[in-house]
Write the structure tokens for this entry.
Amino acid sequence: MEKDTMTPYDTDDRRPRLPLAVRAPLQARAWREFLYLVLNLPVGIVFFVYAVVMLSLGVGLLITFLGVPVLAAALAGCRALGALERTRARALLDLDVADPEPLRSREGRTGLLAWVGALFRSGSSWRHLLYGFLHFPWAVFSFAVSVTVMFNAWALFTYPLWQWIFPAHFGQDGLQVYGDEHGNGWYLDTPLEQLLAVALGAVLVMASPWIIRGLACVDRVMVSGLLGPSKLASRVWELESDRGVVVDTAAADLRRIERDLHDGAQARLVSLAMDLGLAKEKLREDPEAAARMVGEAHGEVKLALQELRDLARGIHPAILTDRGLGPALSSVASRCTVPVAVTVDLPVRPAPAIEGIAYFTVSELLQNISKHAGARTANVDVWRADDRLLIQVRDDGHGGATLTASDSAFGAGGSGLAGLAERLGSVDGLFVLDSPEGGPTTITAELPWRNR
């Protein structure tokens, strides 16, 4: 009979057998947070002294030309110390705080004066300075409490292991709880008293991780609130980035249209004009040859018209404007190389801009399915959920799609999905890809709902 071995984890569901109160004091998280609180004191002293000295010196020198650069150095140094604090929080508290918004000079100016002006205008710089002042008293308090709690908890819990040092080196029977200068008092020297000390130490040991965690939560709030980017600045930065994506996308579309016109319909119309000119010259000399040339030109006109229709459909299809998203997506699906089931459940039509983005998103995804997915069937579902327009495209192909710019959308050689995700992000949309190797591939896109 095989003997069962006791382990702290159940081999069936991998859930810990020991209660959290027993495991918490031994977890790495508790000791990382304790180390963070211990380091609070030296880091807080350096930050506070630097902030006070540099601010006082800069304000005192404002009557001279040296005050401004000293204040600028104070703010720059506080930003550097803030970067150190974010790194420390990331390593010990598992708190990933983004860097504050970069310094940006007005009207693209460069040079030392522009950099100094950007420092003074940046709210993040002043928040770093404020952190240096506010964090110091908290650093002293958190250091004192955390060290006291941890030292006394583990000292009492392990008291029987080291109580022998009192009679051996201090001439007393045990740890003194209280007493006077004449040596009268209460000493933890009997087995019962030692047991009570261990019990009290055990309670403090189990409580210490939660005390440490509570103190660390205050540091988390201070670091994320004062050393990270503000919500307004982050939103402005995001909108500026999205605006750049929109501008680049529009420029790329214009280049594509110009290239299609130049290489397609324009070249065909130039050839048509030359053929008609030759037919005009041959009209009297050789009417039959002229008639053949006019007939060929008629065929070229039809091809040019078809190319122009395709180009217009690529800019904004008429069926989308006239009949809405459902018929337009059905038209796109009919041109896909695999059978596509389209379901559009929208009570009303969204704004034209959102409708157009949804149309071109599905159109590009279906083109990728045709070219690269190796699928037999595909499904397109469009519906509204609260204030979001949701699009889901599924196929039973070989999968392996990635969002990396260098990889294809559906295997090697396809058009990348990263640009499509960026386009959706520029209008506060989302793009979620689920494509395991072997398939199936499910792509979900969300767009903000805007009424017409």
